[in-house]
Amino acid sequence: MKNIKAVIQLGSLALLVGLSSTAGAARAKLEKPLHRYACQAITASGPGLVVVPADTLREAREVATKLKAFTPSLGQAVPVLSVVECILEEPGAAFADRHFQKIYETLPQ
After folding, report:
1. Are 57 and 32 spatial neighbours (Cβ–Cβ below 8 Å)?
2. pLDDT tens figures, 66-91
3. Which of 31, 48, 100, 108 has the smallest number of CB atoms closer than 10 Å to its CB?
4. 8-state DSSP, 80
5. Considering the entire predicted model, what is its pTM?
């Protein structure tokens, strides 16, 4: 009987260790992303802007395609059809499309 108790206790310990490592991984995913990206998007109403917190440029593009973009022409957010470009929000960063860059600069941050 002592052997069975020992196996159960070891099994519980293994389960506890497994749960702890899973909780650690989940906690890591909930941490705040490292960067903010501004993404130029195409919407049915024209060009739009999506600001996305993300760890990488690739992640920013993926997330932006699933969100709504603010469209200056309507003054509201509408679904994104595609993402043209994302830039890291930092001094000196600019969109390749100079017209969109001017729009971006006039929007409240």
Report:
1. no
2. 999 999 989 999 999 999 999 999 99
3. 108
4. E
5. 0.70
What does the DSSP 8-state code read for residue 32? P
CA separation for the pair 38, 90 (Å, rounded): 10
> First and final CA of the chain: distance in angstroms?
68
Backbone angles phi, psi at 11, to 5 degrees: -60, -40
CA–CA separation, 62 and 50 (whole Å): 12
Q: How far apart are CA 64 and CA 42, in angstroms?
A: 11
Amino acid, res. 51: V
Q: 3-state class of 5 per DSSP?
A: helix
Please give the backbone phi and psi of residue 66, each rounded to the nearest 5 degrees, phi first: -100, 0
Measured distance CA(93)–CA(51) in Å, rounded: 14
Q: Per-residue pLDDT tens for 37-77?
A: 999 999 999 999 999 999 999 999 999 999 999 999 899 99
